[in-house]
Write a structure and sequence with these properties.
Oligomer: heterodimer
Order of helices and strands of chain A: HHEHEHHEHEHHHHH
Mean pLDDT of chain A: 86
Number of domains of chain A: 2
Distance between the termini of chain B: 27 Å
Structural class of chain A: alpha+beta
Strand content of chain B: 25-35%
Shape of chain A: rod-shaped
Number of domains of chain B: 2
Helix content of chain A: over 70%
Radius of gyration of chain A: 32 Å
Strand order of the largest sheet of chain A: 2-3-1-4
Number of helices of chain B: 7
Low-confidence stretches of chain B: none
Number of strands of chain B: 10
Helix content of chain B: 25-40%
Shape of chain B: globular
Number of strands of chain A: 4
CATH architecture of the largest domain in chain B: 3-Layer(aba) Sandwich
Chain lengths: ~300, ~230
C-alpha cells in the first residue's frame, strides 16, 4: 500500500508539474541560476587558491650583500640561515653571476653597460635566495637576519613586493567571493519565494481535487505529499540542467585559465570531475531541503486539510 | 447509530447555526432533514463528517464520539461516510471510471482492487457502459449517479446526500431518489438533506424538520411541514 501510494503521489506531482508548465519553467530557471552562481563561486575559490599557491611557490627572499663582502662570509651566512627550521632551501648567486645577470637585464641600456665597464671592481654583491617552508615564515626569517651579527653585511632584501602581491590576490579573491556570496544568496532567496509561490498556485489549481480527496478520506500526508514531491522535482531537474550548462562553461574558460596561470597543471574540469558528487550532490541536497521548507510553509499556509 | 446530544454550533459567538439538537438515527434508517435555507441543515451534515466541530454537545457515530476527533482520524471517519452534494463535485478532466477510482486511489487501494470495485458500484448506479465518458458528456442525473458511485466505493455504513436533487429536473430527481432508496435497502443508513417538498412527501420515510437551528418536528413517517 505504501509503495502504491508513493507511486501515485509521484504521478500526481508530475501531473501538477505539467499542468502549470510555464510556472514550473520559471521556478526551475531561477533554481538553475542559483546553481550556476554557486558553481561560479566554486570556480572563483579554486582559481584564486591555485593562483595563491602558484605565487607562494614562486616567492623567495633575495638577500643582497654589500660588494665588499667576500664569498666565505656569504657562505657563513648561508650556513647560519640553513640551520633555521623555517628555511626550505637557499640558492647562492656569486658576485660574478650577479654581475652577469645585471648585465643581461640592462643589456639594452648603453649608459649602464658603459658605466660598468669603467668601474675597476665588481659593484654588485653576492645574493642569497631564500625559500621558506611556509610563506608566513618570511617575516620571521627576516627578523632573525636583522638581529644577527650579519646584518651589517647586507645591502638590501626584497620580500615586501611579494607580500603585497599575495595580499592583493587575497583581497581581490575575498571581494569576488563577497560578490559571489551576495549573488548566490539573492538567487537562493528568489528561488525560495518562487518555489513558495509556485506551490501556492499549484494548491489553488488543485483545489477541486483537494476537496474531493478530503471528502473521500485521503490522509493528510497523501494530500500534502504531491506538493512536496513537486518541489523536489524542481530541485532535481534544475540540478541536471545546471550540470548540462556548467560543463560547457568550464570547457570555455579552461583555455583562459591556462593562459592566466601560464601552466596546464590547473584544470578546473578535472576538479569538477573529481568532486562531482561532492559539489552537485551537496548543492542538490541543499536546494531540495530549501524547496521542502519553502513548499511546507506554502502548504501549511494555504492547504487546509 | 448516529447520536446528536445537545449539539449547538455558533459562528462568531452570536450566529446560531444549531441549538440543542438531539437526534437518534438508527442503523439502516432513511431520514430526511428538511427546512428552509439557513436553518442549519448543512451545518448538521458538516458536523457528521467532522468538517465542523460543535460548540457544545456530542456527536457519536457507531459508538465513536467524533466531537473532538483528532485530525489524523478524520480520513478514517470519512471513509465510513459517503457524501454527495448538489454540485456533484466531479473532476472534469477525469472520466466516469477515473472519478470513481480516484476515491480509492487516494486512499492507497491497489489497482487490482480498484478494477474490481469500480465496475461493481457503476453497475449499482446503472452507469455500466459509460465508464469512459467525461462529466460534461453526462446529464445532471448521470453526474449525480457518478458522485453516488464514488461515495459508495468504501462501502460506507452511512450515506449523506446534501441536496442531491437540487440541480436536477423532476425525471432525474425521481431516478436519484430511487437509487438512494435502493442503497438504503442494501443496508446503508441514508441521511437526505433537502427542501424539495415533493421528494420528501413521496417517499414516506422519517422526516426531521429544522428551523432556526432547532429540531421543530421529528415524524416517523413524515411530510414536509414548512
Amino acid at each position: 500500500m505504501f509503495i502504491t501510494s508513493l507511486y501515485r503521489i509521484t504521478i500526481f506531482a508530475w501531473q501538477s508539474f505539467w499542468r502549470n508548465f510555464w510556472l514550473s519553467l520559471v521556478t526551475i530557471t531561477i533554481i538553475i541560476l542559483t546553481f550556476i552562481s554557486v558553481n561560479f563561486l566554486i570556480i572563483i575559490n579554486i582559481s584564486t587558491d591555485a593562483a595563491i599557491n602558484i605565487v607562494k611557490d614562486k616567492v623567495d627572499v633575495s638577500v643582497y650583500f654589500k660588494p665588499e663582502v667576500a664569498e666565505p662570509q656569504v657562505n657563513e651566512v648561508k650556513t647560519y640561515l640553513s640551520s633555521l627550521t623555517q628555511v626550505k632551501e637557499i640558492g647562492y648567486v656569486s658576485q660574478q653571476e650577479a654581475l652577469e645577470n645585471f648585465r643581461q637585464t640592462h643589456r639594452n641600456d648603453s649608459d649602464i653597460i658603459e658605466s660598468l665597464a669603467e668601474l675597476k671592481d665588481n659593484p654588485i654583491g653576492a645574493t642569497l635566495q631564500i625559500k621558506a617552508k611556509n610563506i608566513e615564515s618570511y617575516p620571521e626569517i627576516m627578523q632573525v637576519l636583522d638581529n644577527s651579527k650579519y646584518n651589517d653585511l647586507i645591502l638590501d632584501k626584497n620580500f615586501e613586493d611579494h607580500k603585497v602581491y599575495i595580499e592583493k590576490i587575497q583581497s581581490l579573491s575575498a571581494n569576488i567571493r563577497k560578490v559571489g556570496l551576495i549573488l548566490s544568496g539573492t538567487f537562493f532567496l528568489i528561488a525560495l519565494l518562487i518555489v513558495f509561490n509556485t506551490i501556492r498556485v499549484a494548491i489553488y489549481t488543485h483545489r477541486h481535487e483537494i476537496g474531493v480527496m478530503k471528502l473521500v478520506g485521503a490522509t493528510n500526508w497523501f494530500i500534502r505529499a504531491p506538493f512536496l514531491v513537486e518541489a523536489v522535482f524542481y530541485g532535481i531537474i534544475a540540478c541536471v540542467a545546471s550540470i548540462v550548462i556548467v560543463y560547457p562553461i568550464l570547457n570555455f574558460i579552461q583555455p583562459y585559465l591556462n593562459n592566466f596561470f601560464l601552466s596546464q597543471d590547473f584544470n578546473v574540469i578535472s576538479y569538477f570531475n573529481q568532486n562531482f558528487f561532492k559539489i552537485f550532490g551537496l548543492e542538490l541536497l541543499v536546494v531540495i531541503l530549501l524547496n521542502i521548507i519553502s513548499s511546507s510553509i506554502a502548504i501549511r499556509r494555504y492547504l487546509r486539510v | 447509530m448516529i447520536i446528536f446530544k445537545n449539539v449547538s454550533k455558533l459562528y462568531q459567538s452570536d450566529v446560531i447555526a444549531l441549538k440543542n439538537v438531539n437526534l437518534h438515527i438508527k442503523p439502516k434508517e432513511f431520514i430526511s432533514i428538511v427546512g428552509r435555507s439557513g436553518t442549519g441543515k448543512t451545518t448538521l451534515v458538516k458536523t457528521l463528517i467532522a468538517e465542523e466541530i460543535p460548540t457544545s454537545g456530542k456527536v457519536i457515530i457507531g459508538g465513536w464520539d467524533i466531537t473532538n476527533i483528532k485530525p489524523a482520524e478524520v480520513p478514517v471517519l470519512r471513509r465510513q461516510i459517503g457524501v454527495v452534494f448538489q454540485d456533484f463535485k466531479l473532476l472534469g478532466k477525469k472520466t466516469v471510471f477515473e472519478n470513481v477510482a480516484f476515491a480509492l486511489e487516494v486512499c492507497g487501494t491497489d489497482r487490482s482492487k480498484i478494477l474490481e470495485i469500480v465496475p461493481q458500484v457503476l453497475k449499482i448506479v446503472s452507469l455500466t457502459g459509460k465508464e469512459d465518458r467525461y462529466p460534461i458528456q453526462l446529464s445532471g442525473g448521470e453526474q449525480q449517479r457518478v458522485a453516488i458511485a464514488r461515495s459508495l466505493v468504501h462501502r460506507p455504513k452511512i450515506l449523506i446526500a446534501d441536496e442531491p436533487t437540487g440541480n436536477l429536473d423532476s425525471f432525474n430527481t425521481q431516478e436519484i431518489m430511487e437509487l438512494l432508496l435502493k442503497i438504503n435497502e442494501f443496508g446503508t443508513t441514508v441521511v437526505l438533506v433537502t427542501h424539495n417538498r415533493e421528494v420528501v412527501n413521496s417517499i414516506n420515510k422519517r422526516v426531521i424538520t429544522l428551523d432556526n437551528g432547532t429540531v421543530v418536528s421529528d415524524q416517523k413517517v413524515g411530510k414536509y411541514l414548512i
